[in-house]
Amino acid sequence: MLGDKRGRKLDKYVSDYVVFDLETTGISAVNDAVIEISAVKVQQGKVVETFSTLVNPQRPIPYRASEVNHIYDDMVKDAPVFEKALADFDAFIGGSYLVGHNIHTFDMKFIWRDSEEYWGRTIANDYIDTLPLAKLCLPRLTHYRLVDLAAHYRISTDGAHRALADCSMNQKVFEKLGKELESSPVTADMKRCPKCGLFLKKRSGRYGEFWGCSGYPACRYTENA
What's the pTM? Predict the structure, then answer.
């Protein structure tokens, strides 16, 4: 859904959403490009539709990226450019909540950057990142990669690091985290931001510790610890 403001990061479970994932030429949201985008549409916790396409980045794919995602130059030479793929993705998601793993610091930056470059508007959908949710719900885990969470819940990791397989894995993980959120006393006791409703996190600043909204920088609410 295109709009004038970027969507907000939320810390909650919803039953209707779209899980999405990107594969890219590298980790820089400034210099790298998308080479695959996939999404899974979910209603009432059940998968109802999928979307997936390779993307021609109009540049060579670095060998190190191909080692991870197994996407090579010959596979994307006839694929659509990202302007077309992103327009199709936008039509697929509509106004749905977006869900993904580590999307707050990675995938959303690519989506926002390119929608703003192509159309002068941004993807405005609110979104839920399963990485901070997992850290909140499962504080005793030592690693929080998507494959680590899948292993914790005994979910298959077959096809990991291809976008559609990661979407399927993440959808199952998100449903498990939803149940954790319902039953966890930790989340019940967490302080919430009075402005936007997200969880507050204890942070350290120049003048000592304080509570800050987890939605920063979109929400800059703070209070004394």
Answer: 0.83
Determine which one of 70, 104, 143, 161 is catalytic.
161
Give, in degrees to the nearest 5, the angle at Cα 41 between 79 and 9: 100
Residue 112's pLDDT band, with cuts at 50, 70 and 90, is very high
Q: CA–CA separation, 213 vs 203, rounded Å?
A: 10
Count of C-beta atoms within a 10 Å radius of residue 105: 11
**How does 172-208 read in b/e, with b if 16+ C-beta sit within 10 Å?**
bbbbbbbebbeebeebeeeeebeeeebbbbeeeeeee
Average pLDDT (143-147) is 94
185: pLDDT strictly greater than 70? no
161 a catalytic residue: yes
3-state secondary structure of 101: coil
pLDDT average, residue stretch 38-55? 97
CB 20 within 8 A of CB 10: no
Q: Which two tokens stand for residue 216?
A: 């920063």
